[in-house]
Design goal:
- 19% of the residues lie in helices and 32% in strands.
- It has an eight-stranded mixed barrel, surrounded by four helices.
- The chain starts with a helix and ends in a 10-residue tail after the last strand.
- The radius of gyration is 20 Å and the shape is globular.
- The longest helix has 17 residues.
- It contains seven helices and 16 strands.
- By secondary structure, the protein is α+β, with helices and mostly antiparallel strands.
- Bound molecules: (1E)-4-oxobut-1-ene-1,2,4-tricarboxylic acid.
- (1E)-4-oxobut-1-ene-1,2,4-tricarboxylic acid binds next to helix 3 and helix 6.
């Protein structure tokens, strides 16, 4: 079976979703056994290797991602989407997080592959996010019943303009941790640092940039190059994981470590998000929704820094601009839903050939 993959390749669509890129597969084209599948994905991406030279991964967590799409297992969805983060420099594949950027390309992929029939004009697609068990609705531009990637929507972190893919989520609080505030507290203290442990779609640890002697204006490279800072933040992350009901997070890509500071570009809050070992070039979709939600708590690092909007549109500033998050609340102020604008693009369609399995020399 595995040799057949090496010889014949595997059908794969390489797509950009939001500010990420990944390999999109039909579940039926991959092994059903998760261990076999994950071992194959490592060979496809070229991991573990910091430059992923023998695979299609882009040597960055943002371009070492996989989406596995299949017919829905639920009546309230049109497709199932499993997200897998393939670590770049470790032999780890994890399903411990969802990914809202890659999510933006799932509906176009499902239409391209015939899993969903497109309407003439716009096609709403209900996506069951297998990682969290929640659903999202994506709206795809489909003139004449075909996906169009061309349009006039621009998102921070992606050059040019493309067709809009608005995403809507409901009831994603506690999606991965079981509760919006998994410790029951708005703030906790870890290693002497005040943090908010929160999950509105993405487990995040919200930290004040100033508690790490940062201004919050640092570049991705500044943060990635600061080994002492990263070691301190990783120590907090490893302690936060069990407190957030995530068990041992040594080999997990969550929680994300979100450094916050007052907004500098007229937005709601400024962020630098470690995902978790490198700084995000912008911020994840669920990461932004969760950071925006943290701004609405009564206390905490985000609340202290935030300039709350009066139109419900939270502008979460990041190293390459700002992500706009629409937050929906019920009458008592509880966060019930969120909306984010993304774009997506089909980049390459073909067959991917995984590296051969290492053979014993004896
Ligand atoms: O938070 C990166 C990304 C993501 C995840 C990460 C994401 C999300 O930008 O929903 O999109 O946080 O690892 O693709």
């Amino acid at each position: 079976m595995s040799e057949a993959f090496e010889i014949d390749g595997i059908p794969c669509l390489w797509m950009r979703g939001g500010t990420s890129k990944g390999a999109f597969f039909l579940a039926s084209d991959l092994p059903s056994d998760p261990q076999e599948r994950d071992a194959l994905l490592l060979r496809i991406m070229g991991s573990p290797d910091p430059v992923q030279i023998d695979g299609i991964g882009g040597a960055d967590p943002l371009t070492s991602k996989a989406a596995i799409v299949s017919a829905p297992t639920r009546d309230d969805a049109d497709v199932d989407y499993l997200f897998l983060q393939v670590f770049v420099d470790r032999a780890v594949v994890t399903d411990a997080q969802a990914c809202g950027n890659i999510l933006a390309a799932v509906a176009p992929f499902a239409i391209e592959r015939g899993l969903v029939k497109a309407k003439d004009g716009e096609t709403p697609v209900r996506i069951h996010m297998v990682n969290s068990g929640e659903t999202a609705v994506a709206r795809v531009t489909t003139p004449g019943g075909r996906v169009s990637y061309a349009g006039s929507t621009s998102i921070a972190g992606v050059p040019g303009h493309h067709a809009p893919v608005p995403l809507f989520f409901q009831n994603i609080a506690g999606a991965m941790c079981g509760a919006l505030l998994p410790t029951g507290n708005e703030t906790d203290t870890i290693d002497g640092v005040e943090v908010t442990l929160i999950d509105n779609g993405m487990p995040c640890v919200i930290l004040r940039a100033s508690d790490f002697d940062l201004t919050g204006t640092e570049s991705r490279e500044d943060i990635d190059g600061n080994e002492a800072l990263k070691a301190r933040i990783e120590a907090i992350r490893l302690k936060a994981g069990p407190l957030m009901n995530l068990d041992d997070v040594t080999d997990k890509s969550v929680p994300k470590m979100t450094l916050v500071s007052p907004p500098m570009g007229g937005g709601t809050i400024s962020t630098r998000s470690l995902i978790p070992h490198r700084c995000h070039a912008s911020i994840g979709v669920f990461g932004a929704v969760t950071a925006a939600t943290a701004c609405m708590l009564a206390t905490g690092p985000a609340t202290d820094c935030a300039m709350l909007p009066n139109d419900g549109v939270f502008k979460v500033e990041h190293p390459s601009g700002a992500a706009e998050v629409l937050i929906e609340q019920n009458a008592s102020g509880g966060v019930t839903g969120a909306g984010v604008m993304r774009t997506a693009r089909k980049l390459f369609d073909g067959r991917v050939f995984p590296a051969c399995k290492a053979k014993s020399l004896v």
